[in-house]
Design brief:
By secondary structure, the protein is an alpha/beta fold. An eight-stranded parallel barrel has the order 7-8-9-10-11-12-13-14. Strands 15, 16, 17, 18, 19, 20 and 21 form a seven-stranded antiparallel beta sheet that branches.
Amino acid sequence: MKYILKSILAGSIGMFAYASVAAQDFDVTSQKGEQQIILPVPGKKVNHQGIIINPTPQQCLWDKSKHLDLSNGVSLRDIQGKFSNDIGFITSHAKGVKLTIDFGEKVSAKKGVKAVSGAYVMSIGKRGISIVGYDERGAFYGIQTLRQLLESPVAKDRQLPYAEINDYPDLPNRGVVEGFYGTPWSHEVRLSLIDFYGRFKMNVYLYAPKDDPYHRVPHWRDPYPAKEANNIKELLEACKRSRVDFVWAIHPGGDIKWNEEDYQKLLNKFNNMYDLGVRNFAVFFDDVWGEGANPKKQTDLLNRLTQDFVNVKPGVSPLVICPSDYTELWSDPSPSGALATYGTSTDSDIQLLWTGEAICSDLTHETLNFVNSRIKRPAFFWWNFPVTDYVSNLLLQGPAYGLDTSLTAHELSGIASNPMEHGEASKLALYGVADYTWNVASYNPLDNWERGVQELVPEATAAYRTFAIHSCDTETRYRRDESWETKTFRIAEWSETDAEKLFKEFDEIERVPQEMEKCSNKTLLGELRPWLVEFGKLGKRGKQTIELVRKYRSGLEDSTFWNLYVGNLMSSNERKSYESHKSGTLKLQPFYENAMDDMGHEFLKKLTGEVPMDYKGIGSFNSVHTRRSLLMLDNDTTTFYNSGVEQGNGDWIGIDLRAERDVTEVYVLQGRNSVDDGDYFEDAVLEYSRDGNTWNTLVGNLHRQYEIEWRGEDVKARFVRLKRLDSKRTNFASIRSFTVNPIRREDVDFEVMEGDEQSIIQAFDWNLQTFFTVNGVFSFQVNPDINRYILLADSLQTPLTCRQYAKNGNLIAEKLLNSSFIVIEPKAEAARIQIEGKADIFEIIPKYNNEPIEK
């Protein structure tokens, strides 16, 4: 194959033998313990015998041998006159079953209600229904339990079994922080969510939209305009109806001056919000640097606000704050650190938000011990789930898990879940948060998820479940289990039984979008629809891929296979939509893409007789083994691979050349940009290896270099990597380009006479991931030593015209080309071949006169 590169050393691998990043002898001990471990969803589905209550009550006694007939409705006896508007789910009738609702410390003590806000007891018996709450909120929660009982299968004929329920929340704060980056929720979605919070006994809504200009820079000092102020009033009224604390947050740290003028403006803003009806306030200093993050000035400000505002204004609760050191990842653990400063300098009633070991992380004893020992109080956990502002092309619909079920209020004051900008689609995760925070020890994540799917889309539960189970993982940072009931495989591990089962799964997936149109929540359906559309397409592609593998394994002519193969590829527009709204990223998409890559690799290897150069990403970060690593191999410096987790000792990123080759040049472009980005290895070494065990240095002691280039004498290598040296930098790691032996025009023995001479090299790189585009006329000089040219094109929208010209310019042959697998045999007198039309050409493979013709 002398026509292509001067420095390629041939190699080989067995048919479909490449199943993972590493070779058999790859040194796994050189890989760092990865933080992106994908833990399975704990729990199991439970038979609730027709009784569905969320959150799970603390104590229930049922007598299903006796039933209370509610077919004639209820006669309400509202002792405190607070709940007549809360029982719209059941008919009121003077002769109905007596429903008595009361609350208060005295009456609740007689009934054995636990003395915590939100606690209640409910009795269902021959005398009717009695609900007694410790406070108004508790009685309201008892009503929500009654509502859910009446919606449960057990009450389909309005017959309720006798019951005694003694229920209370484990954690005092159970709710949501609207704290994501991106499009804030609409007013209508906020109202819908507030109703959802109340229905499932959540009691906190922290209003902190990152893109609300009156919450943070530039207008945190200014009062809300009339329309926005009226919206906040409506939110307050909705929260009052749902017995939810509306906590208005301000974020001044971006440009606060720490002077008297700014303090007075902050105080004025608080007074303005108080006049609107706000009684719960928060101050956020997250994601600020410099003087805005000064913990001493922050605590001085909070103490002064407490003295001048909280302790003066009637009805105002203690502040909630988010410190700048809100994660263990970058907090200073020393006695002089920010957390210790908060612990010793602020009122113990102030609630401190904390995201855990990392920005997105599980809730564990260890992280609470770390923070609580410094802040001297139980932390208020800001759980960055199901937020997707760092993976906005994904929609997280998986179970809410990763929460330790042995925690108590002595260690944890509560959880504020940070949802997605898709508020309705966030309800599935919030259904789980509500359950966990109410009854920690009994939390069953898998069962809760199964119940939540039914709760949210009762009209198309099976379709929604299929979509949700394949829409869980983030691909980076905070990994989530996904597709746990589905088995996928590389085609080297082909089993017809497994293939048929997977085919049926893809068939079900293809039907999901149509089934989901039955969903009555049109706002939810609108949020899901872009993902549902792509999900259905993925189902169709998956089916086609399985059929294609079957045909390929049975043996096909080259032209037949290639035409079927490119028919199952995505166009650039289809790829854009596919990337914009992803699902099935853990198993389904990799199956489709890996199967196509494996077939393409072996097909190109067969045609050329060489190992193709479709290199693969490797490294110590788990995410480098996913399709995300292709972003550093796509010849586009505007895209980049990002580790998604923090770098540490021993981390590295590299590529597998898929065969031992002569390496003469390596180019690496680190970071998301080359100006001020911190996501790169500040100190590094460039290395190569033949076996993945023994590494040799190409360039050592690289310090603060975004751009790394090496050229030299040939070294034989299969693996090349950039390895981190000891450094204080703990950012993520990003690489925009990782290139080994880049192909240049002078390396290609192919004379272009018309067309883009530079882009033609994409057709000689032994890589089906790249192509060059013919859009008009393209012609090349005929080499007399070549008897055929094979052109591997994309699916043709219209035929191409192939013309052959003699040396004197006369046309000697003309032919229409309809196949994507193009074979051109030059006439004896042909000097130039011209292609006219529009097509993407993946590879041009010359066949020399002494090569045998394949069947």
